[in-house]
Amino acid sequence: MAKENITARSKDYSQWYLDIVEQAGMSEPSGVRGCMIIKPHGYAIWEFIVSALDARIKATGHVNAYFPLLIPKSYLMKEADHVEGFAPEVAEVTRGGGKELEEPLVIRPTSETIIGVSFARWVRSWRDLPLLINQWANVMRWEMRTRPFLRTAEFLWQEGHTAHATEEQAEEETLKVLTEVYADMVENVMAIPVHRGLKTKNETFPGALRTYAIEAMMQDGKALQAGTSHNLGQNFAKAFEIKYASESGTEEFAWTTSWGVSTRLIGALIMCHSDDDGLVLPPALAPVQVVIVPIMRGSDEDKAKVLQACRDLTAGWAGKIRFKLDDRDNEQFGYKVNEWEVKGVPVRIEIGPKDIEKGTVVLARRDRPGKEGKSFVPQEGLADTVLALLDEIQTTLYQRALKFREEHTFDAATYEELKEKVENGFVRAYFDGDSEDEKRIQEETKATVRVIPFDQPSEPGLCIVSGRSTNQQVIFARSY
Amino acid sequence: MAKENITARSKDYSQWYLDIVEQAGMSEPSGVRGCMIIKPHGYAIWEFIVSALDARIKATGHVNAYFPLLIPKSYLMKEADHVEGFAPEVAEVTRGGGKELEEPLVIRPTSETIIGVSFARWVRSWRDLPLLINQWANVMRWEMRTRPFLRTAEFLWQEGHTAHATEEQAEEETLKVLTEVYADMVENVMAIPVHRGLKTKNETFPGALRTYAIEAMMQDGKALQAGTSHNLGQNFAKAFEIKYASESGTEEFAWTTSWGVSTRLIGALIMCHSDDDGLVLPPALAPVQVVIVPIMRGSDEDKAKVLQACRDLTAGWAGKIRFKLDDRDNEQFGYKVNEWEVKGVPVRIEIGPKDIEKGTVVLARRDRPGKEGKSFVPQEGLADTVLALLDEIQTTLYQRALKFREEHTFDAATYEELKEKVENGFVRAYFDGDSEDEKRIQEETKATVRVIPFDQPSEPGLCIVSGRSTNQQVIFARSY
């Protein structure tokens, strides 16, 4: 774990990402194709993400449940688009307890089908609706090209599945989760600004009526889809016979939704905030928010005095600040500082014999490396100083990412402008083209329509492809 | 969800268990052989168990991580006893992305092997030890005869895996987890008294040096193994080359441990406390601790007044008491009461127009059904009254289970006595037999040595099989 081992972003952005993952102890490859080991530091961050999401999922009325890992292959075949989307990338269990199975079981790539079978049993009358279920689980998609967190064969996620009496209610749910659960968590906890909007047909979930997404910008100007929420219409209800008796006694198909975010968010976190020195973590999900690194010089007695000062200073912090005193005696001060910087700890406190004399400490901000981020502050009231600084860092990271996105978002009035500008970030453009247009644009520019934002301009404009007047503005970008 | 659908324990204990699982909405079968769906009420209880365990696992110095679901079959083959124990019951993935795999992957039945491979990479020097890792995961064992929670093909669990420099340290870890994590949680949160002790060779984990366990008594007098902690010696370290450079520079094999508890604990919870009316939950893990059921009579105005009184009474309870106001207007009072009893809610508050006049409410304890558990209490100070009652119920459930265990634990001085008494519960007996003796006893009595308790008598006695003098007393029982 050393910043010397991290490739500069400007030199090789892709290698920089892999170096951060490795040096910060986030994950490592396993002996299983495409599957990663999530190491303790990476998993601890995931736990904070889970906790923040779970609270929001519950606050919006959902309850957790758990459905089987294995799905009979025949279930997957019931919804036509769904099977086309997922069948080619499943892992299949064909033997159990030493015997060939009569029907292969697939490891869930997502659980609409097996949950659909349960929903068909659970929903009888309009009084059973809405049915608001969430599941925390591992899923598997047999990806050919994998990258830690961003695209792995196995990944961890939550998947929400709900059933409603009307299309309006399903639509309301789909949008509520996108904004009140996903965008709220990603912006306020992960400090990553996102665009909220609708996906085009090309990017719609297999089997869905409409897919909504939140999209974030990474530091190379590429987009990362951070979460999706699908209005499944009645497609799965019809495939799995999720029917209810309405208040007036008629039999109706339910309207269902599904929505998910995954360990991919950790990839977004890394690529949004980190720098050439290592990980940079927003305080809200930093496993260690503050590290205290004592400056140990002189006699054993002097050292003991410094350590005691550290302990006195942090007495009473437990439960308010997640802190760690690095009292290892086998590592040098510089080595420790380097290690905590690589791991992204938001605030470092340095205390030496001189600080004790003067009643001060050094506070160093991870988000502003070097001298600029260092300040001497009084020991008195240090907990409050630190809490205020953590808040400030959280805000700063969000504002910095937002500023970066704005500086790398361009308007294009013509297709030529799109081609040129999409090399450097997001491009906002009027567009009313169809799937074929999108495919051609992707071939020629490597960019796709990431999202049709909810925020639309009040004036119409001319489509950059057809030249027709349209009210629809979209965001084009290359993406992960 | 109705108590009328629950078979009496005295009539058919096994059916009673299945009825509780179904009527209380804990789990249900899925279309996948041996795999259950954990329904919201069951899962919410699991979340409390997870949270209580996770806090203790972290407080004892462990960190969480995540390892792949799939394990190359060759890993499983590296430790001789381990492969013998687990190979016959694995599910195998032989196809991925539409192609046959070169080497089959098994769905983890437990993760010693894949974690062993990582530990071999992570451990270099004595300074890397102890390595204290835990994982929350789903695992799969292709069981032939399954029962919800007690024995399912897929189940949820945590598995701890640690590496140490010396045998003493590994042993200390094994015992610490058994007592400070498992026994502490099961007794203080789940209100289930357990015996702590060593397993005999017959019941030792495949590949372990020693297995320790906590064992609980169910209401039919049978034992349920609630958690195990294994000292793996150097067996896995040798199979997976987990080596470290000692302080003096020599190369040594590490000593490893593993330990786990699973959703099986929910089966123990049901069978320890519940009654013929449904589930009985200890307040510490009841998703709803208190339900308020208003008595809605008279005019709409009267009803509104009762509901308002309920809201006024519970104002300020959020964050202190997990409560729910059952304000459904489409269900009768009796139906509601029945439903909450079946679901095991520890305390029910009833309020009607008369109570409002008198400034009282009715408190009903789930652990004492009928009139005996009902009392009128003043509305003033209700939150404190309820909090005290929840504490009392928690203690009462533990004491009641302990009393039941004591009343159903017998001493046997001879094999004949064992045969007779083990029909009705646990039997304490002096025993120094070997594996063959145990097997014979199991064939003849259906009972096994559940545990060699840490608490041993100060005086030696005569082995019930060999007649030899021995210091070792064991607990025999039939088990789940």
Give a structural overview.
The structure is a homodimer of 480-residue chains. Chain A folds into 3 domains: 3-273, BirA Bifunctional Protein, domain 2, CATH 3.30.930.10; 288-391, Anticodon-binding domain (Rossmann fold, 3-Layer(aba) Sandwich); 411-477, Translation Initiation Factor IF3, CATH 3.30.110.30. In chain A, β20, α13 and β21 (426-430) form a beta-alpha-beta unit. Chain A is an alpha+beta fold and 480 residues long. The longest helix of chain A is centred in the last third of the chain and has 26 residues, at 382-407. In chain A, α2 (40-59) crosses α6. In chain A, 35% of the residues lie in helices and 27% in strands. The two termini of chain A are 26 Å apart. Chains A and B meet through β2, α2, β3, β4 and β5 of A and β2, α2, β3, β4 and β5 of B.
